[in-house]
Write a structure and sequence with these properties.
The complex is a heterodimer of chains A (222) and B (222).
Chain A lengths: L1 H17 L1 H22 L3 H24 L4 H6 L1 H7 L4 H30 L5 H27 L6 H28 L5 H30 L1
Helix pairs in contact in A: 1-6, 2-3, 2-6, 3-6, 3-7, 3-8, 6-7, 6-9, 7-8, 7-9, 8-9
Chain B lengths: L19 E7 L1 E2 L2 E2 L4 E5 L4 E5 L6 H9 L6 E6 L2 E2 L5 H5 L1 E4 L11 H11 L7 H10 L15 H9 L1 H4 L4 E5 L7 H16 L3 E5 L10 E5 L2
Parallel strand pairs in B: 5-10, 5-11, 8-9, 9-10
Antiparallel strand pairs in B: 1-4, 1-6, 2-3, 6-7
Helix pairs in contact in B: 3-4
The chains are: A mainly alpha (222), B alpha/beta (222).
Chain lengths: 222, 222
């Protein structure tokens, strides 16, 4: 079973690297949405700084949402999902492995780029450190929730739009805690409680979301 | 090399239980019953040819036998174990090749075959063995060409090459001859006969007749 999951992790990352344009699209999307903020609210530094945490977090949430659209769709369409369901690993662990590969290829670059975007929007000091930290805790939760939506809307026409309707409300707590952590850090208060709660959400979603995904995939396969 | 030779030892049939036992199997699709309850046994060295007009549930029957589709009623036992609860060794003794080839377009036939075995947790994959299998399947010069550039028939041959390297005793083949040329059809018949001689079992659907098959029994779904 371990060998099977390891192969799956390597395969998914290889495929994402081969489909470089997908990864580049998501990163470009994240950068452009963040850049829209100064263009729409004006270049006033104080305003921008106040809006920066929310702006970067919204961009990350939307990037996560559109990138998850195809998480299971390709495997489902070409029949690989059937083979995975017949394989030695439980479907929930298959799902968790696919989500992990997806986050490593598409979530991690956003985390690493976020200080740059924060700096461009005027964040300073601790806030520049807390921003990637909050994203590192929060974007895996977004991936786990989004994967559930992606599995539920598998094979549905206009599934992407339906998935956004299903999943965006679930993104709200993560968004509040994530951007809240950065705002707190900006005002020299501790970001600790927010980050702890984000960690708690991650600890909750990590075992539960894969089970939900597995259930949804079984329905899609039936 | 005769890839079928190692297969008999992978899952030795217990003498009292036939390899595959199907009792009262009925399936529904969209609320409609597809076929009358079906009973059959399949012992080592036997081939079951499932016939029926379009929409009679041949694919659903095959998917139910693999455990991909939940049957409306009935029981499927593989070497005495229920198909739902059997252990990994039993699961790996079953190989399903469906309508969809489960190939990744970005990868070459060789890489696809390696992935397939890796996902089934088959250890120590000898590359020469895989190349032999792909050669035998008629992909000689194309083993390093991404599947994206292969014809439909070549893709099917790549999928069928799995039969040569798997350790499975029970092959469940849904329309294996789709898009194959006459040479490949003859090769397929030869492979099925070889597998049966080695004590394997095959369940197969096909709209075109396969010439030269030994020991074929027919299940007619109407």
């Amino acid at each position: 079973m371990g060998r099977s999951l390891w192969t799956l992790l390597k395969r998914d990352i290889t495929l994402l690297v081969l489909r470089r344009q997908d990864v580049m699209t998501i990163i470009a999307f994240f950068l452009i949405v963040t850049t829209l903020l100064p263009l729409s609210v004006g270049p006033e530094p104080e305003t921008l700084r106040a809006l920066a945490p929310g702006g970067v977090w919204i961009a990350a949430a939307l990037a996560s949402l559109i990138s998850l659209d195809r998480l299971f769709a390709d495997d489902w369409r070409d029949g690989t999902l059937e083979q995975l369901a017949l394989g030695p690993a439980p479907l929930a662990l298959v799902a968790l492995t696919k989500i992990t590969a997806h986050w490593l290829a598409l979530g991690l670059p956003l985390v690493l780029l976020s200080p740059l975007m924060g700096y461009a929007l005027g964040l300073q000091g601790m806030a520049l450190l807390i921003l990637p930290l909050s994203l590192a805790l929060g974007t895996p939760v977004l991936s786990l929730l989004g994967a559930t939506g992606a599995a539920l809307t598998l094979g549905v026409r206009a599934g992407g739009a339906l998935m956004a309707l299903l999943i965006l409300p679930l993104y709200v707590p993560v968004l509040i805690l994530g951007s809240g952590a950065v705002s707190e850090a900006m005002h020299a208060a501790g970001a600790g409680p927010h980050l702890s709660l984000l960690g708690a959400l991650l600890a909750l979603a990590l075992p539960l979301a894969p089970l939900a995904v597995a259930g949804a995939l079984r329905i899609a396969l039936d | 090399m005769r890839p079928g030779n190692a297969q008999a030892s992978a899952a030795p049939a217990t003498p009292q239980a036939p390899g595959l036992q199907v009792r009262g199997l009925a399936c529904r699709r969209g609320g409609m019953r597809l076929f009358a309850p079906v009973d059959f046994d399949l012992a080592a060295g036997e081939l079951l040819f499932v016939r029926g007009r379009n929409g009679r549930g041949k694919t659903t029957l095959l998917r139910a036998i693999c455990g991909l589709t939940e049957p409306a009623s009935g029981e499927i036992r593989f070497h005495g174990d229920s198909i739902r609860t059997m252990d990994d060794a039993r699961r790996m003794a079953l190989l399903y090749i469906g309508h969809r080839d489960a190939l990744k377009e970005e990868l070459t036939p060789l890489e696809n075959l390696q992935m397939h075995l890796g996902l089934r947790a088959v250890g120590n994959i000898d590359e020469d063995h895989l190349l032999d299998a792909l050669e035998a399947a008629g992909l000689g010069e194309r083993v390093d060409t991404p599947v994206r550039y292969l014809s439909q028939g070549q893709r099917r041959r790549t999928a069928l090459a799995r039969l040569l390297v798997s350790q499975a005793t029970l092959w469940v083949l849904d329309e294996p001859l789709t898009a194959l040329d006459t040479d490949a059809v003859a090769w397929m018949a030869e492979r099925i006969n070889g597998h049966l001689e080695d004590g394997g079992m095959v369940i197969c659907t096909s709209h075109q007749p396969i010439q030269g098959l030994h020991r074929a029994r027919t299940l007619d779904l109407g």
